[in-house]
User: Which sequence fits this backbone?
């Protein structure tokens, strides 16, 4: 079983819609959760971190964490073509190495 | 520096040669990570440093790979006798362990290694 699982996609949404990206993790001891965006040919860029159950909002992005279900999600409101990228979910426990999912490719169609 | 800096950005080397990849983390970040990403693939963990120590180097693919970190800052990843399967983008990240901010990690721009 992989530490972090993501649907590879592609997820296609029309411009202006809400994109919903999901991630599950296997270790209940995981403490910190992150979403990275990676454009083709570029390195991952941190967009959200979340540490407590519930929602965390930052601009058009909302991260949701449910530790009981071992589930993390990222909502992108008012999706723009510039949001088209691969989104990587990462988890960390005990401040050790980060475990990354394989990423979900998002396509936002104009 | 303002961000994680990696050098070189690109490296083309002949099979069998040794290469050194350098990572200069964000100033003050105690943790440093090396990952590898092959074309179209996910991130493969190589090694993690806390200070100058490597508590986890379980991801190093073979004994041709080694890494060190000095002064709690710059790290060098060395690949000896390179093989074509070593071709990938090598990514370095650093984080500031602990505190309410958790352990957010920030990546450098990567070194694209091509073994011909």
Assistant:
């Amino acid at each position: 079983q992989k530490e972090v699982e993501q649907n590879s996609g592609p997820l296609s949404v029309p411009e202006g819609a809400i994109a919903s990206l999901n991630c599950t993790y296997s270790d209940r001891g995981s403490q910190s959760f992150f979403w990275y965006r990676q454009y083709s040919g570029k390195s991952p860029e941190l967009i959200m971190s979340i540490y407590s159950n519930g929602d965390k909002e930052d601009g058009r992005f909302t991260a949701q964490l449910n530790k009981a279900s071992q589930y993390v999600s990222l909502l992108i409101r008012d999706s723009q073509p510039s949001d088209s990228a691969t989104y990587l979910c990462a988890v960390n426990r005990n401040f050790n190495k980060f475990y990354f999912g394989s990423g979900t490719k998002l396509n936002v169609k104009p | 520096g303002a961000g994680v800096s990696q050098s070189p950005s690109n490296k083309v080397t002949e099979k069998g040669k040794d290469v050194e990849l350098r990572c200069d983390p964000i100033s003050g970040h105690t943790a440093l990570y090396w990952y590898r990403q092959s074309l179209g693939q996910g991130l493969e963990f190589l090694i993690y440093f806390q200070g100058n120590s490597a508590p986890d180097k379980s991801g190093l693919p073979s004994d041709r790979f080694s890494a060190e970190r000095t002064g709690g800052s710059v790290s060098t990843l060395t690949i000896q006798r390179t093989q074509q399967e070593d071709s990938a983008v090598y990514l370095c990240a650093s984080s500031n362990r602990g505190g309410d901010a958790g352990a957010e990690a920030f990546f450098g721009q990567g070194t694209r290694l091509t073994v011909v």
In short: The two ends of chain B are 33 Å apart (CA to CA).
